[in-house]
């Protein structure tokens, strides 16, 4: 079998330059040339995974089919490549140290002193090569989180240095992503920060093979020559990455700059097959040339930080393109929705999505948003906690159980329509203890949700939650008109609720946004956007009449 090739992506000067997007874009180009490609992320924080992190700290927590709580960059990888990721695609310092300490406790190091080098670096090298040794991939791209020079990143950089040496020439390369800032006072781009960043990398024993330069202005040939000379890279390996109107433009911009070509040269891989980006370009054409526009309210409590709902926002882009509609997402902070102002906050929306979340902050605002969508016949999608809010709202306002709640918000509620699973009750740890990953769901005949899934009877969707629909209230709620239309057969847990006498009202216990990709927009988002357009047109016609 041919040797798997490795590409390491490091970052310099500042964080948030978009290593994940560059890695995903390069992977897309290599994949479109016929190479089996995957990406992994090495995160230098000491949390075992981002599952316990507040979204304000690190953006959303992404979940894979095998139940790994991971960095949001894995969402980009899946959306670009349409290939499923797993636990092996995200490694944290916490997980590395946890593994090494467990081995030491078991006596696997034969009484030796356990050190960063070689024990931590060996563990990192093993994790990096798990995907490569699986035999499934020609190329593995590994994104190193953080910025070169950070204390936290040092063991990763050292592990990369060792791997470059062990794997040999043409089998592993380093792409360094850096910033070329524009100083408006001087009216010019400055290369010095990049030079210093490359110098820091070289002090760790690593030479950058390719330099990707993030910039707000075009980088001239003179500046490229200067960067090549002073950063010790070939002229064709200096790649400009200019700000794009959408992240989905980046693969095309990288192709124009020749990033895939120079990468294949460095890895001594055949370069004859041109990238096949036909479907990608079709998606971009629909995305950039919409025939209509809808406004959808995203009701959540982390709306100040866009990354908190990254997968939802991207799923709307995919679904918008599928419908040839521009989706304007209006963020509505649930904490500020009250009985006095909810109509004012939510009026003019073509659809409402109540977002996932944890804890009681902003809950009553979410319940009010559900009520508004239900009573005003506005298309509605509730995700995870949003579905639970739909159940609580219906129990309170239709069944008359005025104190109905989730035991997450009120342990002493007389009507716990949402309650904790029996097997969760004894769990005290917060990390990795929820219902996580892909679970099967059977769809009911004649339901709206089955129609949305193109008539499929069984689906598999990803979960991340601890509380469940309480089946003790199932009959009561169904008799009153809130139908359970999706179940997990093994556990008999309710996965989906919907309303019969409403144009489009669906609540799902799972996270459909995690599976939406450019190639396969999620059917629930496609359906919601379509319903939003129909609602908008009906309102317009009613006004004209």
Strand content: 15-25%
Judged by helices, strands and strand pairing, the structural class is: alpha/beta
Which regions have little confidence, pLDDT < 50, spanning 5+ residues?
A: none
Helix proportion of residues, in percent?
Answer: 25-40%
Q: Provide a count of the helices.
A: 18
Largest sheet: 9 strands, mixed
Strand order within the widest sheet?
13-12-14-15-23-22-21-18-19
Rg (C-alpha, Å)? 25 Å
**Judging from the principal axes of the Cα atoms, what is the shape?**
globular
Q: Kindly report the average pLDDT value.
A: 91
Terminal CA distance: 69 Å
Instruction: Count the E strands.
Output: 23
Q: Which helices and strands, and how do they pair?
A:
Elements (H helix, E strand, L loop, with lengths): L4 E7 L7 H14 L4 E7 L11 H4 L3 E2 L5 E2 L2 H9 L8 E3 H13 L10 H15 L8 E6 L9 H14 L4 E8 L2 E2 L4 E2 L2 H12 L6 E6 L5 H11 L6 E5 L7 H8 L1 H8 L11 H11 L3 E9 L9 H14 L1 E9 L8 H5 L4 E4 L8 H13 L4 E4 L1 H13 L7 E2 L9 E5 L14 E9 L4 H5 L5 E8 L1 E3 L4 H6 L2 E7 L4 E7 L5 E4 L14 H22 L1
Parallel strand pairs: 1-6, 1-7, 2-5, 2-6, 7-10, 10-11, 12-13, 12-14, 14-15, 15-23, 16-17
Antiparallel strand pairs: 3-4, 8-9, 17-20, 18-19, 18-21, 21-22, 22-23
Give your account of this protein's structure:
There is one protein chain. By secondary structure, the protein is of the alpha/beta class. 36% of the residues lie in helices and 22% in strands. A hairpin with a 5-residue loop joins strand 22 (493-499) and strand 23. The chain is globular and about 70 Å long. The model has no long low-confidence stretch (mean pLDDT 91).
């Amino acid at each position: 079998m041919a040797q798997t090739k490795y590409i390491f992506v490091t970052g310099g000067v500042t964080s948030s330059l978009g290593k994940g997007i560059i890695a995903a874009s390069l992977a897309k180009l290599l994949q479109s040339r016929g190479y089996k490609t995957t990406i992994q992320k090495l995160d230098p924080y000491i949390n075992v995974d981002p599952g316990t992190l507040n979204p304000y700290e690190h953006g959303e927590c992404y979940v894979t089919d095998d139940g790994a709580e991971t960095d949001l960059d894995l969402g980009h990888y899946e959306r670009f490549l349409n290939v499923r990721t797993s636990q092996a695609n995200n490694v944290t310092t916490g997980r590395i140290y946890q593994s090494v300490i467990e081995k030491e406790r078991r006596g696997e190091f034969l009484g030796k002193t356990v050190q960063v080098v070689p024990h931590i670096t060996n563990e990192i090298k093993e994790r990096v090569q798990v995907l490569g040794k699986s035999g499934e991939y020609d190329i593995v791209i590994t994104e190193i989180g953080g910025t070169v020079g950070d204390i936290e990143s040092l063991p990763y950089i050292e592990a990369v240095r060792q791997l470059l040496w062990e794997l040999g020439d043409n089998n592993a390369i380093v792409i360094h992503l850096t910033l070329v800032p524009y100083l408006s006072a001087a009216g010019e781009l400055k290369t010095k920060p990049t030079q210093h960043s490359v110098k820091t990398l070289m002090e760790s024993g690593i030479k950058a093979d390719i330099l990707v330069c993030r910039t707000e202005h075009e980088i001239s040939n003179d500046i490229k020559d200067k960067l090549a000379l002073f950063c010790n890279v070939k002229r064709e390996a200096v790649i400009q990455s200019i700000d794009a109107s959408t992240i989905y433009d980046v693969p095309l911009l990288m192709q124009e700059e020749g990033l895939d070509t120079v990468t294949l040269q460095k890895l001594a891989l055949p370069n004859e097959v041109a990238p096949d980006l036909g479907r990608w370009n079709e998606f971009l054409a629909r995305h950039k040339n919409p025939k209509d526009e809808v406004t959808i309210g995203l009701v959540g409590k982390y709306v100040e930080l866009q990354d908190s709902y990254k997968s939802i926002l991207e799923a709307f882009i995919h679904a918008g393109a599928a419908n040839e509609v521009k989706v304007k997402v209006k963020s509505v902070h649930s904490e500020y929705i009250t009985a006095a102002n909810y109509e004012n906050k939510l009026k003019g929306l073509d659809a409402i999505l109540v977002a996932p979340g944890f804890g009681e902050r902003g809950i009553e605002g979410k319940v009010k948003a559900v009520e508004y969508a239900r009573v005003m016949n506005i298309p509605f999608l509730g995700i995870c906690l949003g579905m639970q809010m739909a159940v609580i709202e219906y129990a309170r306002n239709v069944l008359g159980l005025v104190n109905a709640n989730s035991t997450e918000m009120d342990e002493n509620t007389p009507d716990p329509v949402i309650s904790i699973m029996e097997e969760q009750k004894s769990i005290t740890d917060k990390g990795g203890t929820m219902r996580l990953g892909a679970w099967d769901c059977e769809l009911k005949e004649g339901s709206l949700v089955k129609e949305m899934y193109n008539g499929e009877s069984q689906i598999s969707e990803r979960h991340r939650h601890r509380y469940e629909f309480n089946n003790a209230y199932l009959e009561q709620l169904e008799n009153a008109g809130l139908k359970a239309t999706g179940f997990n057969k093994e556990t008999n847990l309710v996965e989906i609720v919907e309303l019969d006498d409403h144009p489009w009202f669906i609540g799902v216990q799972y996270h459909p946004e995690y599976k939406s990709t450019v190639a396969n927009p999620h059917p629930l988002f496609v359906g919601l956007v379509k319903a939003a357009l129909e609602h908008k047109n009906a309102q317009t016609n009613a006004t004209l009449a």
